[in-house]
Structure formats: structure tokens, C-alpha cells
Amino acid sequence: MFDLTYPVVRPILFSMDAERAHEFALNTLSIAPRWWAGIASITSGKPHASLAREVAGLKLAGPVGLAAGLDKDGIAIPFWPSLGFGFIEMGTVTAHAQAGNPKPRMFRLVDEGAIINRMGFNNHGSEDLAKRLRVLREDGHWPTVPVGVNIGKSKITPLDEATEDYVTSTVRLQGLADYFTVNVSSPNTPGLRSLQDRDVLADMLPPILEAAKGTPVFLKLAPDLADEGVADLVHLAREVGMSGIIASNTTIRRDMLQLDPNEGGGLSGRPLKPLARHCIQVALDAASGKLPVIGVGGIHTAEQARELLDAGCAAVQVYTGFIYKGPGLIGRIHRELAAR
Fold first, then answer.
1. What domains are defined for the chain?
2. How far apart are CA 328 and CA 4, in angstroms?
């Protein structure tokens, strides 16, 4: 269904401002997500059973997951598994609700298959998300695939109080989220990437892990880190007991673009792929098979997803490719993986 309808729907969505189109689609799904899920499941279906796997104790229905950023506040959680996602990640959420950066703050680079965003962690806060997750669990509507939450630092929180900010969100969501992702790699919150310093993270991560009480916790890295920095943080993650690495986030680089639109923010999509692929490989090498790595960045085809899985990634995530290729992308990737 989606492979047939998205070529018709996409021009309408792409005629709108990027953020407005995002909100329109998400709000439409949020009105009756289970109804939309029923419609989508008719043609999308679950990944083939052969693609199921366990990653850090999480039972994934398939290796392709939804990356954080698309559904920050989890308003369409019941819908996403119907497209075939093997796992889904909400957020980024922060301890304090915040409006994010001034608009406009999301831009499509259609010819490049890319998006630039400087959203700034706009969300309703981790307490609001916790209430939503609790209702889903109590009402028996929890998805059959793992639901993770990506956690970031509130803009109003000083950097020297970042640990408490992350711990607050973790405590609120513990027992509700199936896993957490610590996001210290977004380029859109001032100073956030300074938290990727090894000494800083060595102090930050243990309290977050303690607050998670055994819930898997992943660390998300930026593709702009030097190779030594990526490897060092992977080693740190192993030392403190993290469950895995997600590589990578968006980039602030523009040298891979044919035409720089001169817009600040994080670049995702097709131009990011070579940089993300390198970052992923460095993380895989440093992990040495002892810590799972989830690959993300520039995946638009089944071949690209398969390349990362063959390289050793435990799973992959998509976001920008989903926007450009449509909801049918997930089913196509899983079908081609299963056929092989």
C-alpha cells in the first residue's frame, strides 16, 4: 500500500515547510494510531521470523529500527511496529519541557536526499512521556517490539549539572522504557558535545546506569569525533557496563554537499553515509564483538542496511531515508534481507 501511495503523498508533504509536514503527518497518526496500525499491517506485516535477534537482552523483531527524532514525545508509538520496525526509539526527551530553537529549524536538501535540522530537543519533557508510556502499558497497548527512549540534556541545565538532568529523566522512565540511549552527540544544544569528553562521561555514565536499574543503556556518538575519540568512548562504555553503542548522530560538516545551503544544524541522510560508515567501523573495531553496535546514518536502501549488518552491526536505524523513500522502505529492507 505505502509503496503505491507514497509517490502521490510525498509531493504534497514536500510542498510544505519541512517541520510543518513532519508535525502534520505525526499529528494525523496520533489521532488514532492503532487504527492506522491496522491499515498499515495489512500490507507491511512483521519482519520474517528469521530476522529476529537479541541485542543487549532486547528481543528485536527485525534488525531495522526507527531512530530517535521522528516521534520525540511518543505520540504514535502503537503505529510504528505496523510498518515492520524491529524496534523503535522515542525522543530525544529532556528533564524539562522545552520549545527548542527558533524556527525555521528544519530544511530538506531534496537533490541530496538530506535533511538539516537544528531543532534543539523540542519536547514535552520526560515526565510527560513517562505518563504516556505508563498508560500504554497499563491499557495493554504496549508494542510487541522494544521501545527505547533517547535522553538529552535540558538547555537550561548548566553543563556541570548535566548528570542530574540525565538521571532525572532515567528515573522517571525506568520500568517503562525497554532501553535508554544517552545522547551527548547532538550538535543543536550549546555545549552538549563537550560531554563526549572521556573524563566527563566517566563520571556521568555510572549514575545513569544505576538509575536505569538494569534496563539496557546505549551511548550515541557523533560522526565528527576523531577516530581516537570514538574508540576511547567505546572502551569507556565497555568499562562502565553500557549495553551498546549507537553510531552515529548527525554531522556539522558540509564538505560532502554539492551546494552548502548555509544553514546551521545537524546534517543527516545520503551525504552523511560515508562519514557515518567510517565512524561505525571505528566503533566496531574498538568493540571487538564484545559490545553491540547499532549503525545509523544515510541508510536509504536494503543494500546499505545489509552492508552495515555484514560489517558486524547488531542492528541499524533509519530516519531520513524513511522520509525520502517512504514507509514502505522498512518492509522492503526486511524482505530483501530475508530473501538473502
1. 2-339 (3.20.20.70)
2. 9
